Amino acid sequence: MEPKILGEKYDKIAHLWHEQHDNSAYGVAQFKKALGFAPAGGRALDVGCGAGGRLVRLLQAQNFQVTGVDVSAEMIKIASTKHPDQTFVHQDICTWQLPYQYDFIVAWDSIFHLPFASQKPVVSKLCAGLAQDGILVYTFGNAHGEITDQWHNDTFYYSSIGINENLQLLMDNGLSILHLDLDQYPQTHVYVIAARL
Q1: CATH, domain range 3-195
Q2: Would you list the domain boundaries of the chain?
């Protein structure tokens, strides 16, 4: 699925997504674990930031200056309103060039929407965009391949290169694996924390 089409799908559910996730506990424990490895403050990048909310607030509480990027224009509008002192850009991470190196990069439930062929290039781009001692945390599916699924009366696309290839890719890009968890078993949701040490 082209990222532009994905953005339009999320435009339709942006306000509902925001209502459900703004103060949700979903992913917070995992995110705090990643922050525990991170330096205090600096630049943070939130890939697939959605409407902002809980994760952006956690980053702000740790003195990070946040840049959020998302393919949904409506999500970016909400995030910009909720967090006017942070930076949000309506862009496709597949083609967007990171303007800085970041001390903390998160891609929570976003990379698995990318076209399969974009998985390795985007993860490699995020690795290259990580500053020394920086932390990368992202989620992916534990299977290898592509699927579609129904959600909010629409069809959404997902892809993954699986656990082994993600870990190998991180190591090939000079990162050290700090934590891996299949955190919603028996669902196939995985998150990994890695560092440029």
Answers
A1: 3.40.50.150
A2: 3-195
